């Protein structure tokens, strides 16, 4: 388990006093129970195993937070492939907008592998010039899109639509064919260009604006001049169009620049990349509407040798140009073949090592600069069907949020909210997948203030030569201020139990004698970890209709009651009315 910062002396004293009190109670209790056991030994004759006897004592430092994160800590990403496979035209779906709004406030990064193959074309809107002649209402896909666009143009403010089922079915067929081509491109590292039109940008911004998301738009860094300097012509045209529309957008340039040589046979070193970002900052300042727009980068890949060298060189020259430093991390490749791989503690812990490498570079050149984890996904190349879109993948996702918050990552951008591959939160029928429900509960309950956790009795004494890794992950935050069911001063604890046995947790210290609300998330149905449905406290989670979420009903645990975590489950626990000093301000 990740280690928290050293605690101050008063809290340590409080913890020791509480621990001593609980130990005395445990001894008295065990004395009573042991005599009862002795009397029954003739019939049972079984000595309780270690797993059955373990009681975990948990306390939280409520005096001050160890981190304060961005309010948009959990944010989202859309891959530019939605332009190519046609799903961009359906971002106005009322249900899709509702699902995205459920995870607001958040950033929406429009970027990915195909960022560096985007070309902006400020062409006229064909929908306005395709008249309603005798063939206008033909029941084919293209005319349906045009008709939908014209109907949306007539709406004022947020533009949403209810697309006919036949139209969605045709789109799913088209997308299935296109995604085979996209996957082939990604596996071969040979990509085709994608045109983002003015109309496409309108649809993308409408989706973000309706859902309460702030759009971050990725720009093509591989649009190069003969001398390998960055060509800004397409970007300038895009900036002028966005400014004319008064689109509030933040920007980034390129995606995983350390991998350009393998992708297109052309390298962009850290010096050149720093010059490109400086040029982009100057360009933004030249467009009045964007002269104060935020700029993020350099979107380096996993911090291995090439990515580390590029990030280090970039920070030396252009660390002050960007508002936050961005990098990417994927946990595994497409060779994973069983859902249990998502529960491997060795895999979960790789993120800590990567974060430490990035933080070391950033703190060397720009101390205090915010660090974002962008484009994060559980698996490479779009994930694996029936694996990375199941309940089991949620352990990796929830642990990532906990680890990233504990180590000061300011924002985590999840790839992808919708469409591409199998790492998305919403499927192509606009139904939420398990990771969406985990994210929704996280957003509702977890605030940006991170608290230190103190645990005792977590595991047996390590045997010589044996590495014991935590299979019980516990994180604590102040409860989200936007949740009006809880007053300021409440604390949210979320627990990930990777064990195959139930774990009992006793709240100690300042957490004692307080009512707790339990939100226990378990797989629904008979598929276990492979389930694509989730239940909350025994009730299956599903949308009531296109605009209504299910009620997230907590189960009340009386003060002093032990928390029992079932095997291989994830739970959120809100300690009510604790009046924690760290959470009142």
Which tags fit this structure?
single chain, 585 residues, alpha/beta, 8-stranded parallel β-barrel, globular
Written description of the protein model:
- The protein is α/β, with parallel strands linked by helices.
- It has helices at 9-40, 50-53, 81-85, 94-101, 126-129, 141-153, 165-188, 198-211, 233-244, 260-264, 270-286, 305-318, 345-348, 350-365, 394-406, 434-445, 581-584; strands spanning 55-60, 67-68, 74-78, 106-110, 118-121, 194-197, 213-219, 249-253, 295-300, 324-327, 371-376, 411-415, 446-451, 453-456, 472-479, 491-497, 503-507, 516-523, 534-536, 539-540, 555-557, 563-565, 569-575.
- The strands form 4 sheets. Strands 2, 13, 15, 16, 18, 19, 20, 21 and 23 form a 9-stranded antiparallel β-sheet that branches.
- Helix 4 (94-101) crosses helix 8.
Task: Summarize the structure in short.
The chain has 585 residues and is of the alpha/beta class. It is built from 17 helices and 23 strands. The longest helix is centred in the N-terminal third of the chain and has 32 residues.
């Amino acid at each position: 388990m990740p280690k928290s910062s050293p605690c101050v002396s008063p809290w340590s004293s409080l913890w020791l006093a509480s621990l001593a009190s609980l130990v005395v109670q445990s001894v008295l209790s065990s004395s009573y129970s042991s005599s009862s056991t002795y009397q029954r030994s003739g019939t049972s004759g079984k000595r309780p195993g270690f797993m059955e006897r373990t009681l975990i004592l948990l306390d939280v430092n409520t005096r001050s937070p160890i981190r304060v994160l961005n309010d948009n800590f959990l944010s989202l990403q859309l891959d530019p492939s939605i332009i190519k496979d046609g799903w961009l035209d359906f971002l106005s779906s009322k249900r899709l907008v509702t699902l995205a709004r459920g995870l607001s406030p958040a950033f929406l990064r429009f970027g990915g592998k195909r960022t560096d193959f985007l070309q902006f074309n400020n062409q006229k809107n064909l929908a306005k010039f395709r008249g309603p002649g005798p063939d206008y209402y033909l029941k084919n896909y293209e005319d349906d899109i045009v008709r939908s666009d014209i109907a949306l143009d007539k709406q004022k403010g947020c533009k949403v639509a209810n697309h006919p089922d036949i139209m969605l079915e045709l789109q799913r067929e088209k997308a299935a064919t296109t995604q085979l081509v996209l996957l082939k491109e990604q596996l071969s590292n040979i990509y085709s260009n994608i045109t983002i039109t003015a109309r496409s940008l309108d649809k993308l911004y409408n989706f973000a604006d309706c859902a309460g998301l702030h759009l971050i738009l990725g720009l093509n860094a591989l649009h190069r001049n003969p001398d390998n300097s960055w060509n800004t012509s397409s970007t300038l045209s895009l900036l002028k169009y966005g400014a004319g529309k008064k689109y509030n957008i933040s920007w980034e340039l390129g995606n995983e620049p350390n991998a350009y040589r393998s992708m297109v046979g052309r390298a962009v070193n850290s010096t050149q990349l720093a010059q490109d970002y400086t040029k982009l900052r100057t360009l933004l300042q030249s467009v009045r509407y964007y002269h104060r727009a935020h700029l993020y980068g350099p979107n380096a890949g996993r911090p291995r040798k090439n990515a580390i060298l590029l990030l280090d060189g970039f920070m030396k020259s252009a660390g002050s140009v960007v508002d936050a430093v961005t990098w990417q991390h994927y946990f595994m490749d497409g060779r994973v073949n069983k859902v249990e791989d998502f529960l491997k503690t060795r895999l979960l812990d790789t993120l800590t090592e990567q974060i430490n490498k990035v933080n070391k570079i950033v703190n060397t050149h720009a101390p205090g600069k915010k660090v974002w984890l962008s484009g994060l996904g559980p698996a490479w190349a779009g994930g694996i069907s029936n694996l990375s879109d199941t309940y089991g993948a949620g352990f990796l996702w929830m642990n990532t949020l906990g680890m990233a918050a504990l180590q000061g990552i300011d924002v985590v951008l999840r790839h992808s909210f919708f469409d591409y591959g199998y790492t998305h939160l919403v499927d192509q029928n606009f139904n939420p997948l398990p990771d969406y429900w985990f994210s929704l509960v996280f957003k509702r309950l977890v605030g940006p203030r991170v608290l230190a956790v103190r645990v005792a009795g977590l595991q047996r004494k390590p045997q010589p030569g044996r590495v014991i890794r935590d299979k019980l992950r516990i994180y604590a935050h102040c409860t989200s201020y936007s949740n009006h069911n809880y007053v300021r001063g409440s604390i949210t604890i979320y627990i990930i139990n990777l064990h195959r046995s139930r774990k009992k947790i006793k709240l100690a210290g300042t957490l004692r004698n307080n009512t707790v609300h339990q939100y226990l998330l378990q797989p629904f149905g008979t598929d276990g970890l492979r389930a694509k449905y989730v239940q909350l406290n025994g009730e299956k989670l599903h949308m009531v209709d296109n605009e209504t979420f299910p009620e997230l009903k907590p189960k009340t645990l009386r003060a002093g009651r032990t928390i029992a975590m079932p095997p291989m489950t994830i739970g959120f626990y809100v300690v009510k009315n604790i009046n924690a000093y760290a959470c009142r301000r």
